[in-house]
Amino acid sequence: MATSKVDRRQRLKYHIRKKVKGSAERPRLSVFRSNTSIYAQIIDDIQGITLVSASTLDLGERKQSSNVEAALAVGKKIAEKAQAAGILAVVFDRNGYLYHGKVKALAEGAREGGLKF
Prior knowledge:
Elements: H1 5-19, E1 28-33, E2 38-44, E3 49-55, H2 56-59, H3 68-84, E4 91-93, H4 102-113
Helix pairs in contact: 3-4
């Protein structure tokens, strides 16, 4: 039994990462959600580098940076940057968070922006 919410998410994260690996052909789209912002990175796990990143801090929406609309905008922004870098398909890593709310909105925004996963 996990002792805290952070421990539980860490355990879930390890189980997800055993199966979800990013490569050069299909890098990993990783999501991090804080109390004030939401962040997304596209990572090549083989080389260990971040190819593209976006967050609500990039959008300049400081007051409304933790809502679902901002997460949708971050998803569209990461898709736009990924396509500029030549990335069309990714593997989605929800990073231990439930696929609901902001995480789901970010994924839908990325799909609307043209990423395939």
